[in-house]
Amino acid sequence: MFQFMTSTRIIFGEGALHDSLSLLNQFGYSALLVTGQDQQRSQQLEQYFKQQNMRYQRLVIKGEPLIAMIEELAAMGRTFCPDMVIGIGGGSVLDVAKSLAALIPNQGSVYDYVDVVGRNVPLQVKSLPFIAIPTTAGTGAEVSKSAVLQSAQEQVKVNLSNVELFPDLAIIDPTLTYGMDSVLSGCCAMDAFTHLMEAYVCGEPNPLTDMICEEGLKRISMSILAACRDDHYPSRSDMAFAAMLGGMARSNAKLGAAHGLASSLSGRLNAPHGLITARLSPYVMAENISVAIELGRSDVLARYQKLAVILTMNSDANIEDSVQWVDSILTKLQLPLLSKYGLCNTTFEEVAEDALRTCAIKGNPLPLNQQRLITILEQVCYRCCDYHSHD
């Protein structure tokens, strides 16, 4: 038995934002507009609000969504009293907007509703209508039920997760990703890859997420380099579609050790989440394959075998080819190494210990103990040092 949930309505395609503006009226006549620093991306929305005489307030988000920031913005939002919340931007912007839609009508602190460092109690009151419009192709937050927030005090990332957080409307317009910086594009693309890869090999897959993951991974394999390096528009569309599928997959299956370790590291390193999961993923994949061989888990090995076939587009691919494909893509995308952000200065024992407490790691296809997680971190660090010694 399985269940599947996603955003109430999804509109996908080039020009989707322009063609969907009139749908906003069904949610009311005042909007809290949450954006990134690039005002140009939200220009269409602001012009529409003015044409319709809609009341709106714009909040500009810089950097990671800190819990303290969310508390402050929620208090401002309650004063403004919007009918809806609209988020247009990357993953952090959508996570802030999603959190505000949930928290403005609810009493109490953010800590009441988050996991890891909070009480993780259910929302008492229904969220405000929430419209998600991604301008990057990575997190899939536009179709997910969770927002990732950072607790600066505990140096850890936490989840605000509830079925109430699924957007009422997701507008995915690939043109909003055109012209993105190649490194940022690569980090986002590999974030989408890790969502799909971990959901595909996780301990609790289902037939529907399998189908979603296979399609998403196929599109990433075909389009990731042309989208990120050449800004090829049809490939950008493939990546936006794959990111959306990744959001669906992670909301309805499980993740794994790459996300567990990344949650622990994200509070310690000032590095993009997608870059952390990307740099961890080949080592987590290799460790899972190694443990599966030791334990004779043919079901897990069959998953990685199929993954290798999808990624390499070669029906004769070996299991290890999936790991080599990821390594090769990371090199071609020229994504920074984690040593640049201080990975090798962290205490691996503490990172591994914190990772074992995350929800994400519970979905790993096989249980990895603290020592195995430390080994993964040492391998990533060794690779960084080895890379620099050849510069």
TrEMBL record:
<dbReference type="GO" id="GO:0004022">
    <property type="term" value="F:alcohol dehydrogenase (NAD+) activity"/>
</dbReference>
<keyword id="KW-0560">Oxidoreductase</keyword>
<dbReference type="Pfam" id="PF25137">
    <property type="entry name" value="ADH_Fe_C"/>
</dbReference>
<dbReference type="InterPro" id="IPR001670">
    <property type="entry name" value="ADH_Fe/GldA"/>
</dbReference>
<protein>
    <submittedName>
        <fullName>Alcohol dehydrogenase 2</fullName>
        <ecNumber>1.1.1.1</ecNumber>
    </submittedName>
</protein>
<dbReference type="Pfam" id="PF00465">
    <property type="entry name" value="Fe-ADH"/>
</dbReference>
<comment type="similarity">
    <text>Belongs to the iron-containing alcohol dehydrogenase family.</text>
</comment>
<dbReference type="GO" id="GO:0046872">
    <property type="term" value="F:metal ion binding"/>
</dbReference>
<feature type="domain" description="Fe-containing alcohol dehydrogenase-like C-terminal">
    <location>
        <begin position="189"/>
        <end position="379"/>
    </location>
</feature>
<feature type="domain" description="Alcohol dehydrogenase iron-type/glycerol dehydrogenase GldA">
    <location>
        <begin position="8"/>
        <end position="174"/>
    </location>
</feature>
<dbReference type="InterPro" id="IPR039697">
    <property type="entry name" value="Alcohol_dehydrogenase_Fe"/>
</dbReference>
<dbReference type="InterPro" id="IPR056798">
    <property type="entry name" value="ADH_Fe_C"/>
</dbReference>
